[in-house]
Design brief:
The protein is mainly beta and about 525 residues long. Among the domains are: about 5-105, Baseplate protein-like domain - beta roll fold (Phage tail proteins - horseshoe like beta roll fold), CATH 2.30.300; about 110-185, Phage tail protein beta-alpha-beta fold (3-Layer(bab) Sandwich); about 350-420, Nucleic acid-binding proteins (OB fold (Dihydrolipoamide Acetyltransferase, E2P)), CATH 2.40.50; about 440-480, no CATH class. The protein has 4 helices and 33 strands. Helix 1 packs antiparallel against helix 2.
Length: about 525
């Protein structure tokens, strides 16, 4: 069967390059950027009709649409790809100059877009839309209700590419992504309502290779997460696919304490089920070219051995030309490299600046700070103390403007805890403290209440801004001073003794009752 290959440049006349085409392949795969590869003869040979086309029409950055049509069948064009030229090369093919193009879906831009993103009260869908808005020519098509919950109170993405964040956001909900013409479709592979059916003896089938495997499966997953309101570790469980029980697969337990809501734990289990289901299959079917196949369908083979007749989600669609014939390869299953993995990153402590004290919107006892690395948004952090018991405690709230050091619980950037404060830059401690070896140790409140420890003088001093003072020292002994009054009261016996000296009582008048 003869084909004519039509390459369409946006806004220009269609160019039939069937005679010039050496190689054509297009590929759409879940969690991957769709691409097309074309090789066409070109050149400027004397006494020939070259060039067949102008290379300027195929510059990097040009938009290109690729269609295939069968001659003699109403000449209907079947569009199989549309994208942007991202690579161009000249090479020799059997001593004939050729141009080689790589065309990619506009979603390739997501892999080069990174930065610091601070999300407040945003759900998964809102996070995805935010990242897409920062890349030209991309939009959201089909979505899924799982992305609506939970709504993250604060979530930080630190130098993660948009591609990675969108992929991880979807995968955490047990979903995958598919792209076409710069539009994102969110796929739920538990939905098999749209089915591409093939009978094994159909003439259209060229090749079948389906492999079912169970050596990587777990029969049950248990996810542990942290409930910060009750400060408890909780668990959720989910059984795997039946195939895992057939081989008596082991259980899998994961401690994902960076998760703090039951909805997040449930999503983590959905992600587990997705990977179990998709990694149980590999291979696919090759048929004579069919543009109707897409990633939103499930493949179902009829008249096949038992166990192979179930609906299997289509994860890859490849169109290619070989010896003048158009073929479509339908792939199923996903391998480990097709999934997104959490990066193992050790988060260093960050410096923050304390803001005006406000009520914690979650009632968790956190205080508002700003962390320069996270942008200008307010970040809520737990407050570390020297002691935080129910019957004994040290309690202090840092004041506005104070520089604090923040660490992160369970490796989660969303769960900061203030460990200490520090004098940095041009900030110096208030009097009487100074950065020198003879400075006293002690405490100074915002209201100028002082407790000082001076080792060289062997003294402890307590001082108020109203000039009330208590000194316990080597030279002073015990000294109490006040410009107000001093009252010594006891409900029982009180004794004044000076075994080695006198007791002096001085005053305008001395009353003894």
């Amino acid at each position: 069967m003869n084909q004519a290959i039509t390459v369409t440049l946006t806004g220009k006349k269609q160019k039939d390059v069937g005679d010039a085409l050496i190689h054509l392949k297009t590929e759409h795969q879940v969690n991957q950027v769709p691409f097309a590869e074309l090789t066409m003869v070109t050149g400027n040979f004397p006494n020939t009709d070259y060039p067949l086309f102008s290379e300027d029409d195929y510059k990097i950055g040009k938009e290109l649409a690729i269609s295939i049509r069968y001659e003699g069948q109403k000449e209907i064009d079947h569009k199989i790809f549309k994208g942007i030229i991202t690579q161009r090369a000249f090479e020799s093919v059997e001593e004939v100059p050729a141009i080689k193009l790589k065309v990619e879906d506009p979603s390739f831009r997501l892999k080069n877009q990174a930065g610091v993103y601070f999300y407040q009260k945003k759900n998964g869908l809102e996070i995805i839309k935010k990242r897409l808005n920062d890349c030209k020519g991309l939009s959201v098509g089909k979505t899924n209700s799982r992305l609506n919950q939970p709504k993250y109170e604060q979530k930080i993405s630190l130098n993660q590419t948009a591609w990675e964040e969108i992929g991880m956001t979807l995968q955490s909900c047990g979903l995958v992504m598919a792209w076409q013409d710069g539009k994102l479709s969110v796929l739920d592979y538990s939905d098999t309502s749209s089915t591409y059916k093939l009978t094994i003896d159909q003439d259209e089938i060229v090749d079948i290779s389906l492999n079912q495997k169970a050596n990587h499966l777990s029969k049950e997953a248990q996810v542990s997460y942290w409930d910060p309101k009750n400060n408890k570790i909780k668990e959720k469980k989910e059984k795997s696919i039946p195939l895992a029980s057939d081989v008596d697969a082991p259980k899998m337990e994961t401690n994902t304490l960076d998760l703090t809501e039951i909805a997040e734990a449930e999503h983590a289990l959905q992600s587990f089920l997705l990977q179990q289901k998709m990694m149980a299959w590999e291979g696919g079917v090759t048929v004579i070219g069919d543009a109707s196949v897409n990633l939103m369908q499930s493949l179902q083979l009829l008249k096949v051995p038992k166990g192979y007749e179930e609906k299997i989600p289509i994860t890859k669609v490849t169109h290619y030309i070989e010896k003048g014939v158009w073929y479509t390869q339908i792939g199923v299953g996903m391998q480990s490299e097709d999934f997104f993995e959490e990066k193992s990153t050790e988060f260093d402590m960050q410096l923050g600046e304390v803001q005006s004290l406000q009520k914690d919107p979650q009632g968790l006892g956190r205080i508002p700070i700003k962390i320069a690395a996270f942008g200008k948004e307010t970040f809520w952090a737990f407050l570390g103390q020297l002691s935080a018991g129910s019957s004994q405690s040290y309690f202090r709230i840092p004041q506005k403007g104070e520089t604090v050091c923040v660490a992160f619980l369970h490796g989660s950037l969303s769960q900061g805890i203030i460990l200490t404060s520090s004098y940095l830059g041009n900030k110096n401690p208030p009097s009487p403290f100074k950065l020198s070896s003879d400075t006293p140790m002690g405490f100074l409140s915002e209201g100028k209440l002082q407790i000082l420890f001076e080792d060289k003088k062997h003294s402890i001093k307590m001082h108020t801004p109203d000039n009330h003072q208590v000194i316990l020292g080597k030279s002073e002994g015990v000294k109490v001073e006040s410009k107000g009054g001093i009252d010594l009261n006891s409900s029982k016996k009180m004794s004044l003794k000076a075994s080695g000296g006198n007791i002096d009582l001085k005053g305008r008048s001395i009353n003894l009752n």
